[in-house]
Design brief:
The complex is a heterodimer of chains A (600) and B (285). Chain A has 600 residues and is of the alpha/beta class. In chain A, 52% of the residues lie in helices and 10% in strands. Chain A folds into three domains: 43-256, no CATH class; 356-428 and 519-600, 3-Layer(aba) Sandwich (Rossmann fold); 437-518, P-loop containing nucleotide triphosphate hydrolases (Rossmann fold). Chain A has 24 helices and twelve strands. Chain A is elongated. The two termini of chain A are 50 Å apart. The termini of chain B are far apart. Chain B is an all-alpha fold and 285 residues long. In chain B, helix 1 (2-30) runs antiparallel to helix 10 (231-252), helix 2 (36-54) packs across helix 9 (211-226) and helix 5 (133-155) packs antiparallel against helix 8 (179-205). The model of chain B has no long low-confidence stretch (mean pLDDT 87). Chain B has helices spanning 2-30, 36-54, 59-87, 93-113, 133-155, 157-167, 169-174, 179-205, 211-226, 231-252, 254-271. Chain B has a single domain, classed as ABC transporter involved in vitamin B12 uptake, BtuC (Orthogonal Bundle). The chains are: A alpha/beta (600), B mainly alpha (285). Chain A binds chain B through residues 70, 72, 74, 121-122, 125-130, 132-134, 136-138, 140-141, 144-145, 147-149, 208-209, 254, 258, 261, 265, 294-295, 297-298, 300-302, 304-305, 308-309, 312, 392, 396, 399, 401, 433, and chain B through 33, 80-81, 84-85, 88, 90, 92-93, 95-97, 99-101, 103-104, 107-108, 111, 213-214, 216-217, 220, 224, 253-255, 258-259, 262, 265-266, 269-270, 273, 284-285.
Chain lengths: 600, 285
């Protein structure tokens, strides 16, 4: 990067010391309470606290699946069951030789990870309700097998759980084991949540299409999360078998699944502190309402209904007072195109994106009918035409959402694989959408950082443990995102939750996200729709500046003025065919175009 | 053995098919998959046993009351768990609101009715063998429901209105159809069908609160395999599932039958997520 470039002021995004203390304080309070709890010397509290820790180990992992990735995995109790029986059976010595409890606990983690993938696999292909149903079915099956496989599980009579040796012997020793593992689980999930993987999970939840366009491969990511989450559930199960000291299939009712699920929803999706508090509350509450024990499931269910209907955001939303502070009323977006050189960091020459003889019909409708198009680096190429002429369809063919029946799309010499939108980012093809695809619950900065996901080097495991490569990725992504935001003029809003932005700001945010890819080709789908005349003028200047950095820009737009002002080349589509192509001046005087589209 | 596989299999299959149709009726009206289908089936059995055995009502009166209760609960489901979430932007919440409602009802049943499976009285004293009501009653109910729905959807105005809101609810509203009342009506109808399934299948499945989870899952399998919204798919899928399950029960034992059904379900869905009958995928961009 050019060291002499002017410094960029990003005050709004850099957290102050006070904000940092504010963020750490609740965690510190919880840690002190957790470590100091044995001072109360009340073994009853001890058991409740152990249970809360164990539940949290499971919920921490499940939180990534449910709260972050938005997958409705209801039957997670099945993994707890598997983990519990694995540890109990291995340490009991009835089936095998007696295992060391810690080794058995580790095996539980592995079993949990394997079955986490088995349960999670359907999420890659199935719709929400179907996936919820398969997890539920899996939970039913596991309980039935535990009941029937008497030679191993002891059937309905059950089997004894292990006792961990000193220093983790029953009582406060075991409590500290649970607490340490719970703290570890919290730390690791928090690391993931704050990494590009965590942001990608939220992107899959809230804006899957945008996630794909940013090169996020949903299957690989979800599998990694299911492995991790399953492993945590397996370990939690192993500890649970020791806590219960004796386990039967009755110990793993569906109520537990509901409890885990509600803990996350009460806490709030996409938060870690919220679900942690939710878990503690739900574990502790029934203990103080003994007469209500029979009604506990009913109350959980009622609570679930209330949360869904009244506070879908959960505790985290209530605590998120910062995002309730009013924003400045009259905000103006002032892009700074002079910063683009640093954002785009052009090292090599661009490539030509070319379409040849593309044909695509939907049923009997020929949406695109033998289209040839060439988009050259350094030029703004306008694509106009009446509604239904195939403009957005063309964009979708280039982005790989539609596979053309004939013809091919090339980037330079390489043929782009059809129907693989998540591979487009690798070719440095970025795009925006007609309706902005925002990740509403995430900050503007996070939204923009999504755009650079494929440039991260570290693996999921490295992020889990915040190894150096992960930290380097994070710093680079963050710096690049702040620069991109500064370039489009939104840096003051970096910390604001994206769903609080105005429509025009979302359009610029999407452009910033696309710039994160340092695109060879940038496709803009009606970026000026809904913008004021002033904003359109600034947008035009920004687009021109982007193209002058060597980017090939494809602009689909209805504002004829903008098109003719900034385009180097214009193609007019009608009924999926090229009606005319040439410089703006040629198009403006083209007889058919004028009569068919522009009007006299 | 073959005889009992077929008679049991078809009877259980008919109950699954009816629950599948219950899912479908709710789905076509609201594009919402509701977790309450199994609950309705469970209540059909429990309420039937309550009215006939405990309260000593005549069979016909009890039958009508059960169906009426099903309809009422269907309407409550719509008001409490479906309508509020349809308004919100977050589209997947319905999974949770209907699940929560179903769990509340289930738990209430467990507390008030008890957690033990209780017998359901024999209504028509003929038999044994094929003539036994527990074998033919669910099949009859299933046949009546399918024919009835066909007639309703094809030959009545309200049935066509159902299809219209299923096809395109915006356009239907623009035409002046009372979408909300039609949706309530179809939830009531689903309630009747679900309760009918539970009532006719109860001699075999017993009056048991735990049937909710079982029916929820096994009733969903035919819908998932036959394609959502397709009643014929649900019928064929339901009967096939019943036969397969009973055959596996006899041949390899109950637990592995459950595992086998689950494995087949997952594998088929992974290969064809839209179901065997198939449906177009929605536009995304």
């Amino acid at each position: 990067m050019d060291a002499s470039a002017p410094p960029i002021s990003v005050r709004a995004a850099a957290p102050s010391r006070l904000a940092r203390i504010e963020a750490v304080l609740p965690w510190a309070a919880l840690a002190v309470a957790g470590v100091g709890l044995p001072l109360l010397d009340d073994s009853y509290f001890g058991v409740i606290a152990q249970r809360a820790c164990i539940y949290w180990i499971l919920v921490a992992g499940l939180n990534l699946v449910v709260g972050f990735a938005g997958q409705i995995a209801i039957g997670w109790v099945a993994l707890l069951t598997l983990g519990a029986y694995t540890t109990a059976v291995l340490t009991a010595g009835t089936v095998t030789t007696e295992w060391n409890p810690f080794l058995a606990l580790a095996v539980s983690g592995v079993v949990g990870a394997v079955f986490g993938v088995v349960v999670g696999l359907p999420a890659l292909r199935l719709r929400t309700f179907y996936f919820a149903m398969t997890t539920l079915g899996f939970a039913t099956i596991v309980t039935q097998v535990a009941l029937a496989w008497k030679s191993v599980t002891g059937g309905g009579i059950g089997t004894a759980g292990p006792v961990f040796p000193w220093p983790f012997d029953p009582g406060w020793g075991f409590y500290y084991l649970c607490l340490i593992l719970a703290a570890l689980a919290t730390w690791m999930t928090a690391n993931i949540a704050r990494s590009r993987f965590g942001r990608a999970l939220v992107a899959i939840r809230d804006a899957e299409v945008a996630a794909e366009a940013s090169g996020i491969a949903k299957p690989a990511l979800l599998m990694a999360v299911f492995v991790f989450s399953g492993a945590l559930a397996g370990v939690a199960g192993g500890l649970f078998s020791s806590l219960q000291s004796y386990i039967t299939p009755d110990a793993f009712t569906f109520d537990l699944s509901v409890l885990f699920f509600i803990a996350i929803l009460i806490g709030g999706r996409g938060s870690i502190m919220g679900p942690l508090l939710g878990t503690i509350i739900l574990t502790v509450l029934p203990e103080f309402a003994a007469p209500l024990v029979a009604w506990s499931t009913f109350l959980y269910a009622a609570l679930l209904l209330l949360i869904v209907l009244i506070i879908p955001g959960g505790i985290a939303d209530l605590l998120d007072y910062k995002n309730r502070r009013p924003l400045e009323r009259h905000r103006e977006i002032v892009p700074r195109p002079e910063l683009l050189a640093r954002v785009l960091d052009r090292r090599s020459g661009g490539n030509v994106l070319s379409l040849s003889h593309i044909e695509l019909s939907f049923g009997g409708v020929r949406a695109i009918d033998g289209l040839d198009l060439e988009i050259r680096p350094g030029e703004v190429h306008g694509l106009i035409g009446p509604n239904g002429s195939g403009k957005t369809t063309t964009l979708n063919v280039i982005s790989g959402y539609y596979a053309p029946q004939a013809g091919e799309v090339r980037m330079g010499a390489a043929i782009l694989p059809p129907r693989a939108p998540h591979l487009r980012a690798g070719y440095r093809i970025a795009r925006t959408f007609q309706t902005p695809r925002l990740i509403g619950g995430a900050s503007v900065l996070d939204n923009v950082m999504i755009g650079g996901t494929i440039d991260g080097q570290g693996s999921f495991a490295e992020s889990l443990l915040t190894l150096p490569r992960h930290q380097r990725d994070e710093k680079q992504l963050r710096d690049a995102a702040l620069q991109a935001l500064a370039a489009v003029g939104l840096e003051q809003l970096a910390a604001v939750r994206a769903d609080r932005l105005q429509h025009s700001e979302l359009r610029f945010m999407e452009i910033a996200r696309a710039l994160m890819l340092r695109p060879t080709c940038l496709m803009l789908d009606e970026p000026a729709a809904g913008l004021s005349a002033d904003e359109i003028r600034r947008l035009g200047a920004l687009i021109v500046a982007i193209s002058r950095e060597g980017t090939a820009v494809l602009l689909v737009e209805h504002h004829a003025d903008l098109i003719f002002d900034i385009c180097d080349r214009v193609t007019v589509l009608n009924l999926g065919k090229v009606l005319a192509a040439g410089t703006p001046a040629e198009i403006r005087s083209h007889r058919e175009v004028v009569s068919a589209y522009l009007g006299a | 053995m073959l005889e009992s596989i077929v008679s049991y299999g078809l009877a259980v299959g008919a109950v699954y098919a009816l629950i599948g149709i219950t899912y479908n009726v709710m789905f076509t009206a609201s594009r919402v998959f509701s977790f309450t289908a199994g609950m309705l089936g469970m209540l059909g059995g429990v309420l039937g046993a309550l009215f006939i055995t405990k309260l000593g009502l005549p069979t016909v009166v009890a039958f009508v009351l059960v169906l009426a209760c099903g309809a009422a609960i269907g309407v409550v489901t719509e008001i409490v768990a479906v309508r509020p979430v349809l308004k919100s932007l977050e589209q997947h919440l319905y999974v949770l609101s209907t699940l929560a409602f179903a769990l509340m009802v289930q738990q209430l049943t467990a507390i008030e009715w008890g957690t033990d499976a209780q017998p359901f009285p024999r209504l028509i004293p003929i038999g044994p063998g094929w003539l036994d009501q527990q074998f033919w009653l669910p099949l009859l109910a299933c046949a009546v429901t399918i024919v009835g729905l066909e007639l309703l959807y094809r030959h009545t105005l309200i049935g066509r209105a159902f299809l219209a809101i299923a096809e395109d609810s915006y356009a239907a509203r623009a035409l002046g159809l009372p979408e909300q009342r039609l949706r309530m009506a179809s939830y009531a109808l689903a309630g009747v069908i679900g309760a009918l399934a539970g009532f006719t299948g109860a001699e075999m499945l017993l009056a048991f609160f735990g049937n909710q989870a079982i029916l929820n899952f096994y009733g969903f399998v035919p819908v998932a395999l036959g394609g959502m919204g397709s009643n014929r798919g649900a019928l064929i899928g339901g009967l096939a599932l019943g036969l397969f399950q009973q055959a596996a029960n006899f041949l390899v034992g109950g637990i592995f039958a459950a595992v086998a059904v689950f494995v087949v379900f997952i594998v088929v869905l992974l290969l064809r997520p839209e179901g065997l009958a198939g449906a177009a995928t929605a536009r995304r961009v």
